[in-house]
Amino acid sequence: GESVGLHLPTLSVQEGDNSIINCAYSNSASDYFIWYKQESGKGPQFIIDIRSNMDKRQGQRVTVLLNKTVKHLSLQIAATQPGDSAVYFCAERGLTGGGNKLTFGTGTQLKVEL
Amino acid sequence: DAGVTQSPTHLIKTRGQQVTLRCSPKSGHDTVSWYQQALGQGPQFIFQYYEEEERQRGNFPDRFSGHQFPNYSSELNVNALLLGDSALYLCASSLQGAREQYFGPGTRLTVT
Fold first, then answer.
1. pLDDT tens for each residue of A77-106
2. What pLDDT digit, counting tens, does each position of A47-67 carry?
3. What's the gap in Å between the CA of A2 and the closest CA on chain B?
């Protein structure tokens, strides 16, 4: 069946350091893998995505890496800031059935220490 | 330009009751998806509406139903509420087939 899981429930980093959040997936049929950020009391916010035929994609201070061999996804945040504190979810998009259903993992809490 | 809006913000219901949650998509979006997020968990897909029809459904019982209106807004209905239905209900909108979905702030439902 489909599942997206995360390795660590909580990650604490010092302000200014780089953060790496990992995720494992099991559905090889997904066409996009997506990272969302969810702050307390808010809905998930899109950060960056990567198409399944790519290995790496960079955004502003964020990089997503996809390793299809081991079905592993990671989000790297450079120079982590206090505003980055949130729960981060990886999600995969499946196009079966004509829709764009997202399957989320359980999330990683990122805590930025001053 | 308003993003995705949901109402109400919070809701408290008793077991066995029925509830209706509402969602207005981001301007220009025609597809609405609903997700249930239990505390400490990732969102779980309930169903998706496009052209006023349910296009895709997750693993949720028939007690969960929905509707999409001609203006693309949507409702989520839950009948015979159970304690386990307590969660944050998220609405996400997109253009049909687009990879990016925009989420609303959610409705916090508490069933007592």
1. 999 999 999 999 999 987 665 668 899 987
2. 999 999 999 999 999 999 999
3. 12
Residues 6+ apart with CB under 8 A from B6: B21, B22, B23, B24, B89, B90, B91, B104, B105, B106, B107
Which residue segments constitute the domains of chain B, with CATH numbers given?
5-111 (2.60.40.10)
Tokens representing A69 are: 């061999």
List the domain range (segments joined by +) for residue A56: 4-113
CB contact under 8 Å between A44 and B99, yes or no, is no
The domain that holds A81 is classified in CATH as: 2.60.40.10
Q: How many domains does chain A have?
A: 1
Mutate to test the interface with B, among A101, A104, A106, A108 (most CBs of B within 10 A): A101
